[in-house]
């Protein structure tokens, strides 16, 4: 025989039947069938004898009491359920309100996020542009620094060669011309051409000063000491001189014009008649000034 | 901790003679609906049906056995006339009509002819019908050994105070003058095996129709006779409640039964009541209506009524459970959203 033993909430039965029928629900739903049964009998017993018998035995009154009790049960259950449903509906409405509030909150957050995103994009674009500009500028600066560096090295190199006597095969003016011509076609020339007016003046001043200094050492005279032009143009004499030095100068200065670049023309065409615009006597300052003007300003 | 009885379901099978076929339909429908039964209480024919059900290895098997039994009953009625008792009845009827002497002589002649004509005073104890065929059917379908391991079975029996007095108490109760004495309830499995079948037959011993049963020096009759006005004996709810079972399925075999669920306020009771007239011809004709016309109709009616009565409760309970489940889901979802709200607020606070 089956014995009824205690069970715990973890037992399988509690999982299978999480909500056994509640009494008021059963009374509510089943009460309808009970009332139907009694009403059917009540309607059927409408004959005189049946009514007399039911009245005499009290069965009619008991049946009516039963119907009434079931109806009261139903009304009470309806009230209870209606109350629970109303509470449930209120909770549902509240939950819907919460959902709407959440949607509003999310919309607000989304708007903020969209603005933030748009602002961030603008900032990134601006930053990108500025960074690009900055990089371009830096690139330009680096190129310029590189060019300045190369120009300086070139100047040092060329003047060191002059100082070391590598241009000794040329006349005094020819040495200066050869140096300036070499610099014009090298990094210094690029630096000069890419510089501003002020920078150009500075570059030329530095160049002039160094050329004057070297000429002062070569002539052993002051920079303002005027010498006869023929002295400046006179080819050197001695051993170990390059035999075709003058030809090389003529080749270098084939671009010269007797009117626009008289100093260069005079140097490159030594032995010919001096141009009219070529001074007959001049200091090293004047010579350098004239050559610089002929070489670097000829195309300005 | 809840006890298993808080979840147990008790089945109450009321008495009603041949209308017990209704129980077959009820149980078929309950089986289809997936209902469980943990204990059974029955009166009269309900006790016999309950015995078959309780001794079956499963509810499904029990319903199949009941179906087979009742189809057999429809084809071969289990009640055979008890001729001596029938003659006795004639004697009693004649006594009133034609005078005592002639009928006493008639009785004597019958006894002299070897017939067991009861004395008039014993008539109400012997019964008009023999229950021998019913015995034989019980022998086929009722297994006392299996019952020991089956569902707890309670039956109602009425302790007789004498045939005439029993009838009078029922008549007085029916007329509203005084209720009949309460029936007693027997836990069949706790009885000695030798008494189990007697107890079941005693529960079905309708006075005048069947003879009473002797148990423990007492005479017992149909349990449906006790507590007549409130159907205390015929719809035996009390033993299940005493066993601690609070959820009950109660079947009725009469139209507009005056048994009241309101007498048991602590129990959850689902009544299966006839939704159309269960009465076919009325009175004893229905009580003894073991014929192939009525039995199938009662079985069908029990099935339909159960689907309606239980189905209505299932629908409502399902709707209620779904509502609760949705509320729980809503609550869980709400709690989850609260955390997300907090996270979103914190994230947006960082952004702003």
UniProtKB/TrEMBL annotation, chain A:
One matching Pfam family: YjcZ
InterPro entries named among the record's database cross-references: YjcZ (IPR025599)
Domain of life, source organism: Bacteria
Protein name, as recorded: Uncharacterized protein
Native species: Allochromatium humboldtianum
TrEMBL record, chain B:
Assigned keywords, A-Z: Hydrolase, Lipid degradation, Lipid metabolism
Organism: Allochromatium humboldtianum
Sequence ranges assigned to domain PNPLA in this UniProt record: 11-241
Residue span of motif GXSXG: 42-46
One record GO biological process: lipid catabolic process
PROSITE patterns noted in UniProt: PNPLA
Motif DGA/G, residue numbers: 222-224
InterPro entries in UniProt: Acyl_Trfase/lysoPLipase, NTE, PNPLA_dom
Pfam families, per database record: Patatin (PF01734)
Protein name, as recorded: Patatin-like phospholipase family protein
Positions of the catalytic residues: 44 (nucleophile), 222 (proton acceptor)
Motif annotated as GXGXXG, chain positions: 15-20
GO MF annotations in UniProt: hydrolase activity
